[in-house]
Write a structure and sequence with these properties.
three-stranded antiparallel β-sheet, alpha+beta, 145 residues, four-stranded mixed β-sheet, Nucleoside Triphosphate Pyrophosphohydrolase
Length: 145
């Protein structure tokens, strides 16, 4: 089973950063979460999110700024079972601040939660529905506080 960690990055306007996967990587030409990747041996999921955010987007976020939303087991494909760990971070990152890794990412953009929900499950999106559920649950709890 492959352990992964991914993060939802939200800007001050309440929009979420998505990345368009490059044509030569897994899930080519599909929109994905802000950043993420495989957890290296001896690395914590939070450290993975920090590393991947820096590598993929050029954004250095302190580990303590990441909020753990939850994890789940994806066993739909017996050949590729994963254990994703999902995080959230909020900041004032503008598109012009982002220096994305062109070998993995073709483009980035900010979108609303409603826009993400429209593309979940379509051929243009590589985001698993469980990842949006964890985000929605967190945002709902934050509204109550």
């Amino acid at each position: 089973m492959i352990k992964t960690a991914s993060v939802w990055l939200m800007n001050a306007r309440g929009e979420f950063l998505l990345q368009l996967r490059a044509p030569n990587v897994k899930n080519p030409n599909k929109w994905g979460m802000s950043a993420g990747g495989w957890i290296d041996a001896g690395e914590s999921p939070a450290d993975t999110v920090k590393r991947e955010t820096m590598e993929e987007l050029g954004i250095d976020i302190p580990v303590g700024q990441f909020v753990f939303l939850g994890d789940f087991f994806n066993t739909e494909n017996p050949e590729h079972q994963t254990h994703p760990h999902i995080y959230f971070a909020k900041g004032d990152w503008e598109i012009s601040d982002i220096r994305f890794q062109e070998s993995e990412i073709a483009a980035v953009k900010y979108v609303s939660l409603a826009e993400i929900k429209k593309i979940i499950g379509t051929f243009v999106c590589a985001i698993q529905p469980q990842k949006i559920t964890l985000l929605e649950e967190y945002l709902y709890k934050e509204q109550l506080n």
